[in-house]
Amino acid sequence: MSKTHLGHTARKRFGQNFLHDDYVIGKIVAAINPQNEQNLVEIGPGLGALTDPVCEEVDALTVVELDRDLAKRLRHHPFNGDKLTVIEQDAMTFDFTSLLKSMPYEGKKLRVFGNLPYNISTPLMFHLFDHADSIADMHFMLQKEVVNRLAAGPGTKNYGRLSVMTQYYCHVIPVLNVPPGAFKPPPKVDSAVVKLVPHATPPVEVNSLNTLERVCAQAFNQRRKTIRNSLKDCLTEAQISELGIDPTCRAEVLSLKDFATLANAVTALEQSDNQQG
């Protein structure tokens, strides 16, 4: 199969796979449910598979596109050019909080959606989590395996660091599965759409997000180890027990609340060490 689609060659370095199945596109747009007077932002619009049907529903859409040829094509779109604000930039470094200040509808948070390049989907989501206060909701097409990990609960094989950190920031709602044949060129994996809704207030209190990240990374880095072993350089077995957590359990059975408890204990210890030092 030719990699050229509508006169544009899919670029491997941008992780481009273009969505073309009208039934699937209709289901995704229905899930997003775009309305007028919403601050809608699409990441990586590509050839407009989602852009065009969303523009049929609304008067204004902002798109963030890194590929210069595609950005130019969107600006000169015969039907939707006047509805689109095209930002030619890398979404990975883009300041979404500043974008909100320039959006047309004051007092309304961003509604973000996109068919994300799979090679950058996880770091891009975490970049967006940094701007979660500015975002009402997000709808993303991702690898199905990633969606399963985002939504997984403790005690399941898909549960890991990505589950814990995502669920700290957002409510995770799987929306629909998408087969490889819905894309050109077809990816080698199944895809799925997920809805992420940032929490108005975090579900647990965390004193240092960096420490939560670090504790999760250490605990899940060696999944087969007990947390007594994986966290031994920051907490003793007795200290873990004092928190009401079994030091002989593995990371995959601990809840977000447990990880917050562990991280806050590490933060408190480090702060007291710094004061003594």
From TrEMBL:
Cellular localisation: Cytoplasm
Keywords carried by this UniProt record: Cytoplasm, Methyltransferase, RNA-binding, rRNA processing, S-adenosyl-L-methionine, Transferase
Residue span(s) of domain Ribosomal RNA adenine methylase transferase N-terminal: 24-200
S-adenosyl-L-methionine as UniProt keyword: yes
PROSITE patterns for this protein: RRNA_A_DIMETH (PS01131), SAM_RNA_A_N6_MT (PS51689)
Enzyme Commission designation: 2.1.1.182
Family matches, as InterPro entries: KsgA/Erm, rRNA_Ade_diMease-like_C, rRNA_Ade_Mease_Trfase_CS, rRNA_Ade_methylase_Trfase_N, rRNA_adenine_dimethylase, SAM-dependent_MTases_sf
Superkingdom of origin: Bacteria
Major localization class: cytoplasm
One MF term in the entry's GO annotations: 16S rRNA (adenine(1518)-N(6)/adenine(1519)-N(6))-dimethyltransferase activity
GO cellular component, one term: cytosol
Pfam families: RrnaAD
Catalytic activity: adenosine(1518)/adenosine(1519) in 16S rRNA + 4 S-adenosyl-L-methionine = N(6)-dimethyladenosine(1518)/N(6)-dimethyladenosine(1519) in 16S rRNA + 4 S-adenosyl-L-homocysteine + 4 H(+)
Residues reported to bind S-adenosyl-L-methionine: N17, L19, G44, E65, D90, N115
UniProt xrefs under Gene3D superfamilies: Ribosomal RNA adenine dimethylase-like, domain 2, Vaccinia Virus protein VP39
General function of this protein: Specifically dimethylates two adjacent adenosines (A1518 and A1519) in the loop of a conserved hairpin near the 3'-end of 16S rRNA in the 30S particle. May play a critical role in biogenesis of 30S subunits.
Similarity-based family: Belongs to the class I-like SAM-binding methyltransferase superfamily. rRNA adenine N(6)-methyltransferase family. RsmA subfamily.
UniProt name for this protein: Ribosomal RNA small subunit methyltransferase A
Organism: Alteromonas australica
Gene assigned in the entry: rsmA
